[in-house]
Design brief:
single chain; about 0% strand; about 130 residues; globular; mainly alpha
């Protein structure tokens, strides 16, 4: 499937952008109460609340592609902690413990930490090269 090869860095940016938006909604739900749901009104003194701060700030930084590598690495670790702290005690299998999203986020962010922000990122504009 070489027909997508010319668009690798652009598709990397799309992956970063969409992952950032999806993560951002977790942070906005916890601190901005949008969308309204069970995650609203998080306390920053809890692990759930700290995750919300990371989701809010990290989501924005990923969307614009600023500090992509360190932010993605931190978020990957946050998702790993979320999986082992919240989901793994329920069952060994992610399908049964509800942890599929945490695992997927963890590895997407780990990939972004290694690959950078792609062609359409603030990192590339700032540094003048693929970051």
């Amino acid at each position: 499937m070489d027909f997508l090869r010319p668009y690798e860095t652009q598709l990397l940016s799309v992956l970063r952008f969409m992952s950032g938006l999806l993560l951002l909604q977790h942070g906005t739900a916890k601190y901005l109460n949008f969308p309204v749901g069970p995650m609203n009104n998080a306390s920053p003194l809890t692990m759930f609340g700290v995750a919300g701060i990371l989701e809010l700030i990290g989501g924005v930084l990923l969307v614009i592609g600023l500090f992509t590598r360190p932010v993605a690495f931190i978020l990957s670790g946050m998702c790993a902690v979320a999986y082992f702290y919240v989901h793994a005690p329920r069952s060994f299998f992610p399908l049964l413990n509800g942890g599929e999203l945490a695992v997927l986020y963890c590895f997407v962010f780990l990939y972004l930490a290694a690959a950078g922000g792609g062609a359409w990122s603030a990192d590339k504009l700032w540094r003048g090269r693929d970051a």
